[in-house]
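User: Show me an example of a complex going from sequences to structure tokens.

Assistant: Sure. Here are the input components:
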Amino acid sequence: MLGSANVSERATEPPDIGVSVVILALGRSGAQGPDSTNMPSAQSPSAQAASAQRPSALSPSAQGDRYARPALWIPLVRRIRQPFLGRWALPGGHPQANISLEDAARSALESTTQLTPRYLEQLYTFGDPSRSQGGLPMVSIVYWALIGATETTEFKEGDNVRWFPTTDLPPLAFDHREIIDYALTRVRNKVAYTDLATRIVGDEFTMSQLREVHEAITGTSLDPANFRRKMLASGLLEPTGRMQTTGRHRPARLYRYVAHESPHR
Amino acid sequence: MLGSANVSERATEPPDIGVSVVILALGRSGAQGPDSTNMPSAQSPSAQAASAQRPSALSPSAQGDRYARPALWIPLVRRIRQPFLGRWALPGGHPQANISLEDAARSALESTTQLTPRYLEQLYTFGDPSRSQGGLPMVSIVYWALIGATETTEFKEGDNVRWFPTTDLPPLAFDHREIIDYALTRVRNKVAYTDLATRIVGDEFTMSQLREVHEAITGTSLDPANFRRKMLASGLLEPTGRMQTTGRHRPARLYRYVAHESPHR
DNA sequence: TCAATAGTGTCTGTAAGACAGTATTAG
DNA sequence: CTAATACTGTCTTACAGACACTATTGA
């Protein structure tokens, strides 16, 4: 059994492999889940601690701010063994010889959140020996996923699974904090030149909703006029013909996303 | 021992891990190595076969063509066991618990080519069960590397290690052909918005030389005037004050690369 | 002188950002 | 009417690509 070998014997052996997932979902601040409205909440002490640390979570650049604007949230699981027992960590599992790495990531995702991702992509493979920090040397193949805005009402939360805003993360096990930061920069870069945002809004959406997604991911605030033109110029959107009225102001046109090729990866 | 387990037993076990490297170097066509001039060549039959297939290897878009223009070459190793015995494959090795994945890639690179890369970056981790094709299920963590133009004269070649132009690759083992193609698209994309090209030209270089590197990697032909302006506008180049005379025409200014931050990864 | 490459000037089209102005709703 | 957001028009700047033009060398 590998576990019984001592350090010098293990040095030239292969490290263990794991698959982890950075799961990102849009949510509004002011509650303990990505989209708090109508959700049965069994608040545990540490959930309260988390939301206590969150004064007005997002709004990186001020403007309006009468309603909380959406931000990125991430589900973490609590470690139930050493090292880092009790710390929050990325959901993960182990690859199996008969399934693809992507499926391993997908199943790790679904078993912790009961959700199906709208987007899933390999992030990076981390394998530096120093990252194990008292654990066994480990290679982590990390994926990142986007959860659609409509699904986030049905997430599951418990004492060992909890959502956190990416702007206010607890101390994490291993190098998981750096992994999340890397995932966030990747997403922020990629949202600018791909159709990522259209994947996570609903089937029908207004320009403002789409823009809010971009703003939540990049943490910036975008000019509505220029954003609209840029999106329409991409040729990936078409009006559904329907409108949406939300407040005491002009109703907004609804659009749908029309897929072309997929210049992915 | 793992090797004695049957298929159904192996299914839920972790796959094996390997580290492979796609090594890219600049070379001119018309010989069997990246930079053929003055090299002791012990041509083997298959080396002759390879160069016989190569009429005028590169020049994707015609212009001038009085001298062969540089193109990307890649070293491959011949497999000495089943499956795919005798086929060409990417150099690789196995990760060890006490060294980083990058160091594992570096040592695989150095043991096959005796060269030190100017640039080394993780490409992707391939782990689909279908890719093993008769071998044991395998996760391959693939890196790609760039070899400097000046080093390519000292490469080592033998019956089991040989350089091929990327435009004319032999049949490869496993899914290594797709891996190389993926590496090439990554490099082509990245050369446009990073300082990759400056890494592989020498310390001093003319604008034409730098432009040739870009052209070789992207496979396009670039306007000298616009290319010059773009490079100078980047602020990463400074004239050394020296000139280089090559033919019966105006001598060219020499530049050097000045590093700023490293907005990498 | 000519051929060849080095290097400059300039025009055009595209796209992003700033920002003024018009449209339509609820109250 | 006002406040709020939806949407349109237009100006400026930056930059990439096309391409004409000048500069300097060897033969």
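The lines above are the inputs; the final block is the predicted structure for all four components together. Residues 223, 225-226, 229-230, 233, 245, 247-251 of chain A lie near DNA strand C (CB under 10 Å from a C1').
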